[in-house]
Structure formats: structure tokens, C-alpha cells
């Protein structure tokens, strides 16, 4: 395995979410690793959300990656395909604020949820020169796919991720899928697939290797 950048280089990361909590559910362990690495500049863009959900998202993002910047497009939850132009515009405007990121985290373009799917489809059209890591989100639809790329997550970070999710997203605790077993179980399964205890998994549809 080879690190993306040398230890002293600043890693620029954009994290895209259709909804508040998407990124932390899918990539919380990876975010904690980025924070531990140091030298990473991270920005979040969340396409939907009201005042309560935005406040949760801001606190959560800061807890996962202190110093992160958070932007919100305030588009209607569950209706992003109807607002295709506004979504595309929000992505481009965010790209102008943090130019030339090395990594973009986005939903899978084949995600069963229409909001996730649109963001995942558009991300590579906006950030053409970045490594796009398409993340997975467990849900009722049962759309878990076959990942291509894994980020090992130390056990302490896996449990910290779950703790922070519970702490900062009180509005979501009533969902029947919102529990430790779902979050830790998925990370344990992905860890088994890459010979680690815990991991988060992504799909990389296109990568450029320079020797």
C-alpha cells in the first residue's frame, strides 16, 4: 500500500452529503483518521437540511474533523432530482471555494436513494481530476454493493465514530436502523473483507496512476 501524499503535504478533501449525517455514517472512521493524520483541509457540502439538522451537522463535522468548513444548499429533502440544476450549481460553487481537492467523498451513483444517487452521479462531472471515493450508506432498501477500496479503521476510532453519531444526531435516534450493531456490524464486515478488524469501504470507478 502507498500513502496518497507524503506526510508533510496538505491533503485537500471535499465531503459531499445529500443529507446531514450521510458522510459521518459512511466515512466517520476515515474522517477520524484524517484528523489524526494532520495536515488535511476538509470541507463539507450538504445539499438538504433545515435549521435543526444543519446545527447538528455543523457540530458533528467539527467533532469529527476540527477546523472543517461546512456549507449547505438548503434544497428539499427527497426531491433532489427535481432540482437537478440547483444541485449542479451548488456543487460547482463549492468547488470554487476549495479548488483542486485530492479526494472527493460522495455517495455511490447506484445508491437506491434518489438524493444520494444524484449527488454520486454528478460528483465526478464537477471534480474531474480528484480521486472520487463513492461511499455506502446502510438503509432499508438493501442496496449494499461490492466495494473496490477499503480504509482500515482502528477499533478505538470505530467506537468513537458511533459515539459521535449518537451524540450529535439526536434527531435520528428514533429510526429502527440507528444503532450500534448496524454501524459497527458494517464496519466489521468490511474489515473482514480486507483482513482488518474494522474498515470503511468505497467504490472507485476511475483512478489515474502516475509512476
Topology of helices and strands:
Layout: E1 11-17, H1 22-37, E2 40-48, H2 51-64, E3 69-75, H3 84-97, E4 103-107, H4 114-126, E5 131-135, E6 149-152, H5 155-168, H6 180-193, E7 199-203
Parallel strand pairs: 1-2, 1-4, 2-3, 4-5
Antiparallel strand pairs: 5-7, 6-7
Helix pairs in contact: 1-5, 2-5, 3-4
Number of domains: 1
Low-confidence stretches: none
Question: What is the arithmetic mean of pLDDT?
Answer: 94
SSE order, one letter for each helix or strand: EHEHEHEHEEHHE
Jot down its keywords.
6 helices, single chain, 211 residues, Rossmann fold, alpha/beta
Give a quick rundown of the structure.
By secondary structure, this protein is α/β, with parallel strands linked by helices.
Description:
The chain has 211 residues and is of the alpha/beta class. The chain has one domain: LmbE-like (Rossmann fold, 3-Layer(aba) Sandwich). The protein is 40% helix and 20% strand. The chain has six helices and seven strands. Strands 3-2-1-4-5-7-6 form a seven-stranded mixed beta sheet, sandwiched between helices. Strand 1, helix 1 and strand 2 form a beta-alpha-beta unit. Helix 1 crosses helix 5. The radius of gyration is 16 Å and the shape is globular. The model has no long low-confidence stretch (mean pLDDT 94).
